[in-house]
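anyone else get weird line breaks when pasting these?? whatever heres mine. first is seq + tokens for prot A
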Amino acid sequence: MSLIDRYIQDVGRRLPRKNRADIKAELRSSMVDTLEDRFGPEPSESEVEDFLREFGQPREVAAAYFPEGQYLIGPSLYPLFRMIAWIVVAAVLGAQMLAWGVAIFIAGESFSVLEMLGSLLNSIPVSLGWLVLTFIILQRFDVQPDLEDKPWDPQSLPKIDDEEDLKRWELIVGLVGGILFLVLVVFFPQWIGFVTTPGGKFYPNPVIIQYLGWIKVSLLAGIGLNIYLLWQGRRSAISRFVKIAANLFSIFVLALLVQGHNAWLAAWGAGGFFDSLEVISSIAGGEWEVVGMQAYRLAFVVALIVTVIETLVMFYRLVRGKIQTRTIAGLPPVSA
């Protein structure tokens, strides 16, 4: 059985280490039994050679023991990878255009077409390389979408609920926007502020710089949630809880930013929030720095109000759904 031993050894070195011994033992038993049934207890070497040729090359046999083949990124992860890859390309292009626009608008710098193309040819492969590496790690640790291994039951289909449906374009727009803002705060924090005219004086925003760490965490949470929802394809109770938690964190960050702007404006002797509308409309007699900080504060206040309302609506829908589910199931309502 020297050829059989060599064959199984060659197959084994191509197998996953954790299952190698069991697969080799199973393969040996199957091959020996087949040989004995076909050629008797002592087959000749030529008969063994013919049998091995028929059985197939070791690499082909080893590949059959991989549940999804020998992939860096398997079929179940590839659709998500392809979608995110296009999003990454769009985000990189947007980030580059943002960087060029800011540099031209603020610093008055100029770029040649070759410089822009060279920058894109450098940044896009690097970004896609990191994405591929991330999915290779996911594939290596068998992180897969939520697929059912048990027999499929048509009764397990989710009920139709318009509130659970996802608008993929909204998620993609939010994902691209989040990545663009993250690129801005990570790589170009010195450009966070405002400028009056192209090439004019640039006014940085010290409050945003002060809370950059919190802003980065909030953006990463939003990006991660959008990727998860794109992966799952629909909302669930868990995703609603996560979204509410992410919104609560965003409310905390926005409150910090509003309070920070209040403190900065108070130190400059500026008026309260309602005075900001009059200040902005009157351009504050040319005090551009105060005008810009008032505008930032107004924007963050609006964002804070919108986020609070959105969170309350989501919480109401979540509680209402739980109550309806318990009522349909004949269970008593949840006590406070």
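and prot B, same format (seq, then tokens)
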Amino acid sequence: MLTVTLLAFVTVWNLHNVRRRAASPWPAIVAALLVPFTIPVDWMLLRTAATIWAVVSTFKTWELARGGGGDPRMQQTAARAFLWLEVPQDSRVPDDDAAASSTRAEGRHRLLRALLKTPGALGLWALEIYWPSIHSNVWGEALWALLIMWLGMTAIIDVVAGIAMQSGIHVAEGFKTPLLARSPRDFWGHRWNLFVHRWFGRHIFRPVGGLRHPIRGTLIVFLTSGLVHEYVVVAAIGHLPQHIGWMTAFFLMHGIAVVVEVATQRRFGRGPWFPRPAAICLHLLWLTLTAPLFFGPLGEIFNKM
């Protein structure tokens, strides 16, 4: 009952107060962040889903209080605003019937794309069942977790976006083939979780200096991301994790890698420094080598499911 009450409060507060600039966003943010803690820890799958919703809701509430995203037409009606709040990626209203029809067709393509990803995710899940020793090697486990997380997460997002786009409202892409990234900057800036990238750019990077102080801005963005992920683990399992601080270390390492990449490009030119296939392999190696810092804490969630 408390969970449902908080969910209703967040929705009503955002739609009737924050959307109209009539009240502070903080009551809705605090209520959203408390939602996972009202769910029993034995219901780990539901609690984890609630934790992800809490983070997305927090980002959306803050965005709403600061102007409501890129397309103001999404805030003109309560129904559109509700869709905007619940679907993470940026969305926009079609300009005409032709644009709406094109959006619906693209949405069906995303649903098909999700269907095509499903065998890969199920195959990786079967691999774990029939070859559990994959978890005995930290690097093999990291690569396995990276692949199944990408396939599973993007398939779910494609389903949500594909269904929402049948209304004619366009939903921005959330991922762009992240495994083809050629560098840390390419991965985080152009391919992985673009909703979070855009949100951090608007509300963290620019306010703390932006392009005038890019090193400071980049490191603060990655530090903030690490702290957000620490919250995700704590809220999901209900106590401090065994791997406390690992998420923050992971994101700071990648923030430093992005800073080094940008500084190198400014000093010696943008390159390319390696052929595309070699750059992709090198970045995947870097991602795999650092991934245990990310998946160690997440493993505490999965082990309780």
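btw re prot B: The chain has a mean pLDDT of 91. Residues 97-130 form the longest helix (34 residues).
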